Amino acid sequence: MIDPNSLIRRLGVDPVALLLSNTLMGKLYDRSVRVVLAFALTLAVSAACVSDLGSVAYKPLVSPVQRCMNLSGALEGPSEGEWGYTVRMSDIDKIADAGFDTIRLPVRWSAHAGKSGRYELDSDMLARTDEIIDYALAKDMNVILNVHHYYQIHHNPSKHERRLEGIWNQLAAHYAAYPDTLIFEVLNEPHTKMTVERTDALNKRIVANIRKTQTDRWILLATAEWGSLPGLIESQPPQDPRIMLSWHYYDPFSFTHQGAEFFKPTPPIGAQWGNEDDLARMTADFRAAAAFRDTHGMPLLLGEFGVFDAASVEERVKWISTVRHLSEANQFGWCHWGFSSNFQAYDPEKEAWIEPIRAALLGD
């Protein structure tokens, strides 16, 4: 029988560092005992699988998404442009030409759906998402279409879960004939009353509904606790060969969100990152995510990561480059947040990439 503690030591993962590695909303995130046990069991099962294979190295399933950019700050606002960014087709050209293979399109569908009955989606918003999706697919890109900023469901799920199911019934029908390079992402960053158990149950229902008509569609599932690593490790995703798992990484929050005035209290500017302990914590987090993926045999996508623009470019580059390289070393795809709204990789005033950020994402 495998001893999880000795296995963790053998892999170079410090359990204390694991407990201290995540901050959530500027506060130290206190991982529960069940998270540590879940991670230990995940590692144990992964090691057992490798042992059974003898000298043959385990090859994890690969995400169809490798290098992705979030078109953030546009359609997930109350209305497009209200947050200062409107998606242009030339933006998609720039993203594709730079070497990204995917765009993620966050949409606040809850602001464009009826409140009762069939929860009918607004035809103008569907036409707008059609325009963006059609253009990106014609550029041979993948598109991730998600439900973003559905604040009400996180605080009153019993009232809004059926509405989300209705939204996805319509989206699945509307896009049924689209190629499987259009990927459905059920719900962004479940949290608060959308517990791990509740999120798992809702994910399974929506996947089952989509599968009634689309057996080959890739579906991306975020997990509870803001899509964080603890939420991922505690989740029990449905077994399906065309499901990807998603997690988001913004640790430490006091560094990545310094000066972000949309968050209160705003983390002060001046935080730095990159010492030996910082690197060890981040490395342990990525090993934990990869171990969970290997146990469940599903591709994993780092669906969001980035540093707010108030940090210096040098500090942003150091963190972004490390996250990108750890993702690739652990063989899962990534999706930077974001393009040109905030957490910028592209400067809309200069109409140019912020070259150090572009190089951190795409350079050698």
Q: What percent of residues adopt helix (DSSP H or I)? A: 40-55%
Order of helices and strands: HHEEHEHEHEHHEHEHHEHHEHEEEH
CATH-level-4 superfamily name: Glycosidases
Distance between the termini: 42 Å
Strand content: 5-15%
Shape: globular
Looking at CATH, which topology would you report?
TIM Barrel
What is the level 1 CATH name?
Answer: Alpha Beta
- Low-confidence parts: 1-58
Describe the structure.
The chain has 364 residues and is an alpha/beta fold. It has one domain (4-362): TIM Barrel (Alpha-Beta Barrel), CATH 3.20.20. 43% of the residues lie in helices and 13% in strands. A hairpin with a 2-residue loop joins strand 1 (23-24) and strand 2. Helix 12 runs parallel beside helix 13 and helix 13 (313-329) runs parallel beside helix 14. The longest helix has 21 residues, at 276-296.
Topology:
Blueprint: H1 4-10, H2 15-20, E1 23-24, E2 27-28, H3 33-52, E3 67-70, H4 89-98, E4 102-107, H5 123-138, E5 142-147, H6 151-155, H7 157-174, E6 182-185, H8 196-211, E7 219-222, H9 224-227, H10 229-234, E8 243-249, H11 253-256, H12 276-296, E9 300-305, H13 313-329, E10 333-336, E11 346-347, E12 352-353, H14 355-362
Parallel strand pairs: 3-4, 3-10, 4-5, 5-6, 6-7, 7-8, 8-9, 9-10
Antiparallel strand pairs: 1-2, 11-12
Helix pairs in contact: 1-3, 3-12, 7-8, 12-13, 13-14
